Every structure is written in C-alpha cells, then in structure tokens.
Amino acid sequence: MTENTTPIDDRPLMARLGNSGKLLLFGGLIGVLIGFLPMAKPNGSTGGNLSSMNLNMPDINLDLTGMLGSLGTNQASKVKVIEDPRGIGCVLAYVMSIFFAFYFHSPRKSYTLGWVWIALLNGVLTAFTAIWILFSPPSAGGGLMDILGSGGSKMSLSYGAFLNLIPAFATAAGGFIMAKKERLL
C-alpha cells in the first residue's frame, strides 16, 4: 500500500491563492458578472428613454411598467456582452480562470506545467478578445456575420465593453504571474 506523499496545505483558501490566484479568481468572477452588462447600443438611440431627458443616467433600466408604463430605457435594442460570440468566448474564459484559481491553489498542489501554459494562453486570448470587441463593435445583424465583418449597421459601444477589459487583463496577469512562479517565462 503506497501513501500519497504530496504535502497538504491546510491554510484557508485566500491565504493559499497568492497574487496569481486572486487575479484569476476575482478576474473570473467579475468577468462573468460583466458578461450580462450591455456591450453596445444602436447609434442615435436616445428617443423615448431616460437618457434623452438629460438625467445623466445612461443605460439604467427602470422597470416601472406596472406603475408608470414603459418608462425605462429600451433594453431590447442593446446587445449584452454574452450575446456576442466574442463575449461568449470571454465569459467561458472567465469561468476557466475561476477553475484555474481553485485548481492551481488546491491543498494538494498536484498540477502539471501544461495546465499553467493553458492558463496563460486563456488569459492572453481573453485580453485580445476584449480588445477586439473594442475595435470592432457588433453590428445590428449580429452573430457570425458580425465577426466576418458583413453584418448590418455598426452600433456604438456601451460601458460593458470597456469594463470587460478589467477582468480580461486581470486573468492575463494571473496566468502570467503563475507562469513566472513556475519559471516557464
């Protein structure tokens, strides 16, 4: 009968995570939440919503339909981050970075260096995809035709596209720090 000789780290999770794990975990958690924010809105869509009343509250949905009628902004015309194929890729990469945070910092530390390379590649591709969303906003057609560049009219970016950069670069930094810690770079 052989015993497992891998030392067990019985510190609490936040103490085990270190810088790379915290960046991977919090970047992934924030990224999944940002996936449900509006990424783009149609150009010139200010009529009939609260942002046209100069209340300095763009993109806030006040759902008061039962009491005041349809007073909120038109959420149906906005594209959420998760509704774009590139946004879906980002959200899936954020879920993977949450997995990597727990996998690399488990009590047994039984991972291979190949997984570190995958975490680094995951973060870098997420950062490039978030930048790609900024330089190529979705069109009104959406879907695969949007990625190929032959969609409908272009939409203007909303705050979700810009906020998507924060967790993207956090996961890239987490993968980079993990690769430096394992002396892969």
Automatic annotation (TrEMBL):
<keyword id="KW-0812">Transmembrane</keyword>
<feature type="transmembrane region" description="Helical">
    <location>
        <begin position="21"/>
        <end position="40"/>
    </location>
</feature>
<feature type="transmembrane region" description="Helical">
    <location>
        <begin position="155"/>
        <end position="179"/>
    </location>
</feature>
<feature type="transmembrane region" description="Helical">
    <location>
        <begin position="116"/>
        <end position="135"/>
    </location>
</feature>
<keyword id="KW-1133">Transmembrane helix</keyword>
<feature type="transmembrane region" description="Helical">
    <location>
        <begin position="86"/>
        <end position="104"/>
    </location>
</feature>
<protein>
    <submittedName>
        <fullName>Uncharacterized protein</fullName>
    </submittedName>
</protein>
<keyword id="KW-0472">Membrane</keyword>
